TrEMBL record:
It is found in: Membrane. Keywords: Membrane, Transmembrane, Transmembrane helix. It is a multi-pass membrane protein. The chain crosses the membrane at residues 51-71, 83-102, 114-132, 144-162, 182-199, 219-238, 250-271, 283-299, 305-323. The keyword Membrane applies. The keyword Membrane applies. This is Zinc transporter 5 isoform X1. InterPro entries: EmrE-like. It comes from the Eukaryota. The lineage of its organism: Eukaryota, Viridiplantae, Streptophyta, Embryophyta, Tracheophyta. Its main location: membrane.
Length: 354
């Protein structure tokens, strides 16, 4: 019998594995495109009607939590332990705070900057290197951190906007949405939201490595986030807003529920488990960047393609350096275990940054 770590002598080429991954890659691209489409629909609705961000997100979380509970049925199957349920409930509070900051950042900074700021969670890779990593990789991760900060600074200065980019030579761009002037402080809101998003992903990954159990705990997390957000949304409706417009835009509401909350969880799970592609990675950023370009052109946003590509490239480089593993150790693991799936298990159990 072949041992788990033994390499088969007659191992064929990896073309069949690549072909098997192609449908999964297509699903990942389509899922991210639909999610980003829902974000742009949400932004257009909020900017045109002036509706409350908190009420809109809360009204989307309520049906999302109900659907997640009905689909996963966490009360059925093997009973969940307190060491799994309690952190999932606490993770719901982190998720609720993430949605609050992300919604505020979306309304103030626009969808392009809010989506790219979600990748700020890669700074956790720098933190893990400082606390647990090797000193040889520390300066590389710090350099990646400075590259990410530079990208976010350029985004806050409007380099990805046609009206403010130094690479735009048109005085009157054909746009339907003119972006408002923002500063570095405004950009910090979606950046902090991205860090919270990374924390909730790390917590969910630490609680369970099994797909079915992970989905059951995710349903508890979304339901908990809805409960945490309820008093904040009610306070905003009673005191915070002088004129409240309930979010009854059918497409903005339904698309964010289906694609922005429910579908994207399964799509990212497939990408992480089958394609070994975590959220804060250059490959994921490349997919999201392509979807952002499509939506910016389709919605006729204030968009500068050269400026966006420059900011996205700097951000991708920073993420690559900030989340880079020890190449020698990673290659040795892959060459010895990828033939029988052990490599996939070790990747899932490794200290991923986000």
């Amino acid at each position: 019998m072949m041992s788990p770590n033994q390499i088969p002598e007659n191992r064929g080429p990896s073309h069949p594995a690549t072909l098997r991954q192609t449908p999964l890659q297509v699903i990942h691209v389509i899922g991210n495109l639909m999610r980003i489409w829902s974000v742009y629909s949400m932004y257009r609705y909020l900017s045109q009607t002036g509706a409350s961000v908190l009420l809109f997100i809360f009204s989307c979380l309520v049906p999302s939590s109900i659907l997640c509970l009905l689909l996963q049925k966490p009360w059925k199957g093997r009973p969940l332990t307190n060491t799994q349920v309690v952190p999932s409930v606490i993770n719901g509070g982190v998720t609720a705070l993430y949605f609050i900051l992300w919604g505020m950042g979306l309304k103030s900074c626009g969808p392009l900057r809010a989506i790219l700021a979600e990748y700020s969670g890669a700074v956790l890779g720098v933190l893990s290197a400082v606390l647990y990593g090797r000193r040889g990789n520390l300066w590389k991760k710090v350099g990646g951190l400075f590259a990410m900060l530079a990208s976010f600074y350029f985004l806050s200065r409007g380099w990805a906007l046609a009206t403010k980019s130094p690479f735009s030579f048109s005085d009157n761009p054909d746009t339907e949405f003119q972006s408002e002037e923002i500063g570095v402080k405004d950009m910090l809101i979606p950046v902090f939201a991205g860090i919270l998003s990374a924390i909730r992903r790390v917590v969910a990954r630490r609680l369970s490595l099994k797909n079915q159990l992970k989905r059951r705990l995710h349903a508890i997390t979304i339901a908990s986030a809805t409960c945490f957000l309820f008093p904040v949304a009610m306070w905003d409706m009673i005191i915070g807003s002088t004129s409240v417009e309930l979010p009854f835009s059918a497409w903005a509401f339904s698309s964010f529920v289906l694609f922005g909350i429910i579908l994207i969880f399964y799509v990212d799970s497939i990408a992480e488990e089958r394609l070994h592609m975590v959220f804060s990675s250059p490959r994921h950023l490349m997919v999201a960047g392509g979807c952002v370009i499509v939506m910016e052109i389709a919605y006729k946003m204030d968009f500068s393609l050269p400026g966006f590509l420059l900011c996205a490239t700097i951000l991708g480089f920073g993420i690559h350096e900030a989340t880079s593993l020890d190449r020698t150790r990673k290659d040795s693991l892959q060459s010895s275990d990828i033939s029988n799936g052990v490599y996939e298990d070790r990747i899932q159990m490794s200290a991923l940054p986000t």
